[in-house]
């Protein structure tokens, strides 16, 4: 594997671990506030992100590339409202999507076809993730200051996180 691709994939592993850490911090925040459905959703999301990092790590090893685990930045210690948090999650997913697209472009420039193929899964996954988080943002916006609506959404997400755990990638 060419050095530029190896470096970029190592960066992406770090980005995925950071996402896992960020969602874990959000999960802990929600659990501390007794919003167990939001917390469960975020715990599941955090595990998914760990899975994304591992998917790249395993791929690199298959290709005989050198894996470099870099320091994971600390996530924020304080968070705003549920709407703020999900907006932050959406912005993070958009950032990850851009990074995946840049990686794909780099792989194409270097004619690294196996890496392009490997990244296909991530490109599709990002479409799904942005859609899922975007819908939660919409629902939270509709709920506004209505606490009953917020609790209903919390219960709904509790069911959803259970479903997602069973078909984890
Ligand atoms: Fe691994 Fe949510 O992107």
UniProtKB/TrEMBL annotation:
The gene is ftnA. Its EC number is 1.16.3.2. GO terms for molecular function: ferric iron binding; ferrous iron binding; ferroxidase activity; identical protein binding. CDD domains: Nonheme_Ferritin. One of its GO terms (biological process) is iron ion transport. Belongs to the ferritin family. Prokaryotic subfamily. GO terms for cellular component: cytosol. Iron-storage protein. InterPro entries: Ferritin, Ferritin-like, Ferritin-like_diiron, Ferritin-like_SF, Ferritin_DPS_dom, Ferritin_prok. Pfam families: Ferritin. It comes from the Bacteria. It is an enzyme of class 1 (oxidoreductase). Residues 1-144 form the Ferritin-like diiron domain. The keyword Cell membrane does not apply. SUPFAM superfamilies: Ferritin-like. Keywords: Cytoplasm, Iron, Iron storage, Metal-binding, Oxidoreductase. This is Ferritin. Fe cation binds at residues 16, 49, 52, 93, 126. It catalyses: 4 Fe(2+) + O2 + 6 H2O = 4 iron(III) oxide-hydroxide + 12 H(+). Gene3D superfamilies: 1.20.1260.10. It comes from Ardenticatena maritima. It is found in: Cytoplasm.
